[in-house]
Amino acid sequence: MKRIHFSIFIPYLLIFIIFIDDLHAVPGFARQTGLECMMCHASNQSNLNAYGRDFARSGYTMSTQSGPQSLIVGKDLGLSTVLNVSLMLKARYDKSVGAINGKGSISETADGEPIDSNRGMHEIFKTSTINIAGKIADNVGSVMELREKEGKTIFGGKVVSSFETGDAYSGFSVYSTNNYGPFTGMESYSTGLYKPLRQFENHKLTNAAQAADLATGAATGIQVFYAGENLFLTVGTYVPMHNTDGIDLGASMIPFARIAYEQPIGDMRLIIGAYGISGSTKISNTILDTELSGYVTRELIELKKEAYGVDLQLEGDIMSKHTLLTINAVLKNKTTLDKPYLMNYITPSPKKTIYGEPADADMEAYSIEFELYPTSSLGLKVSFLSLDDSGPHTFELDKVDAKDKDAYTFGFDYSFRQNVTFTMEYSMVKPTRIDIKDYTDLLSVLTISF
What we know:
- This protein has helices at about 10-20, 30-35, 50-55, 210, 285-290; strands spanning about 70-75, 75-80, 85-95, 120-125, 130-135, 140-150, 150-165, 170-175, 220-225, 230-240, 245-250, 255-265, 270-285, 300-320, 320-335, 345, 350-355, 360-370, 380-390, 405-415, 420-430, 440-450.
- By secondary structure, the protein is mostly beta strands.
- It has a 16-stranded antiparallel β-barrel. A two-stranded antiparallel sheet has the order 1-2. Strands 16-17 form a two-stranded antiparallel sheet.
- It comes from Candidatus Sulfurimonas marisnigri.
């Protein structure tokens, strides 16, 4: 048994000590509305309650009518006096024992030393973001995000136009993201269809939609939506890229849809939903995998996507303790290319074949996640994930069944303030391929939003 060295948590303690006395500010939406963070969030920053969902569906346009963020009101104008900028800082430490790569082997140096999370990875501010968000005009709001990826600055976000329709909201959203998936335009539940709203930081080992790569990755598209007291419905179309260069939009975009029904039951609220993606588009092979640029001739290939599943969320109080249960079943998530050989190239020296992505994956997954808050600051959580990749992986047979696994995770969230949270999660992973050994992962994260 390997011992956990508590010295790994020193960086988090130092950051906490440095910042804690000054962290009385709250993020941009709280400034705009004049409300506390937890008026919209359910116990932690990664989940929305019913009021928070309404705020998102309003296009992020609810605002205080007095004070420093009153509106500049005029003909065809309803603009906040302040441009809201928020920072979300994350410090992470990830330590695995025996974790594998996509081919089922442990990544090592030439000297046999483990690398990546098997060595232990500190990521101070790597996944941090700068957000510019809030009301643009009457019935129009936005969330824009700046983040770093592989040394590059990534800019993405969405603009939402929303109107009150009786007791409901209806409207549309235009979005582009390199990370959050096709449902980015409008999704406010915690079942994993929108990456920022989730119960666990280690989403790849706890949530079906994330582990099966259904609700992650680049997407540029448009959604229309209707959100009533009991019914949420959205349809949209997208292309699986953040940068539209290399996409043949004339060939069509990929349609998708999502429906959910909400029903209050005493102090609880039950949400049952379903979702689906089906269609194809044409995309440049060198844009789909930028590492191919300069090695192969740039050509358009057809990418076909077929995915669907069902989800459930049960939230509310049990004996005055807040709880959140989510279940997601990805029944199918299949991606195919009509000319997969155009994703391969041969290096001149040494001569070897390099295979590009995406792989010909065919995923199924289901997950169950549960969190209980014995106190308002402490959340205890557990999850189970099962993942099955039936893709043939024609060019890389060592990837066959390499991702198949059952994963058990438990952890906690502790909020020092509404906008300062420490998370720790421990996962035990049992791959189903006979030649891959069980492994573990310990993830700890300090999140500061202001």
